[in-house]
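Task card 7
Instruction: Convert sequence to structure tokens.
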Amino acid sequence: MVRLKRGKVILASMVLMFAVTGCGGNKSASDYYKEGMKQYKEQNYEKASESLKEAVTKNPNKAEYYIDYGMTLIQCENYEEALIQFDKAILDKDNKIVRANNKMAYRGKGIAYYNSADYESAIKAFTKAIKITDRSDLDIDILFYLGDAQEKTLDQEGAIATYTKVIEKKADQSDAYYKRAVLKGQMGQLEDSVADFDKAISFDKDNYEYYFGKYAILLQQGDTAGAKDVLS
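Output:
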């Protein structure tokens, strides 16, 4: 998702190359990087972090090395060190490559803060990431993280607005409708909540959580017959 807790892992490299060349002390930064990516794919995160640390040591000028090292450190639950690596990747320059790397780095910082339960800092990082228009393929993932963090800080209106942005970007995001439906229910917007549950169900008819959510809202409305129909 990466969303590390809920979805796929997204690293800085668009294509991971796993061939490892060289040996011993003759390994280049690129060799260590490829080795680290291979270990990451195999979920050997501790070994991957060691290889990527060597890569950034040998070549401190590659932002993608810092980003992928940071993401690996998140998998190792070393959030403080991950934040340091992401900060090293962020540059004050304006070109396509730098903007894309900065977006990845801010996203990484957001995930590190989110996983360490610093939700206010996570919101700030995700907000910076989403403002960068490059790498728009990451936007939905970032917005889901942002919405989750806003929920954690009890910013229901902010979270609703964020899930609305997800839907505007891609209308078939059933989970965004579901999350928005739950929040609207909590705020007493029961009719709008039911409408969102119906949308979520229309895109994912096999997700029973959506049905139970709609059932609870219908009971709140006093529609016992409708609630029973949902269960059936």
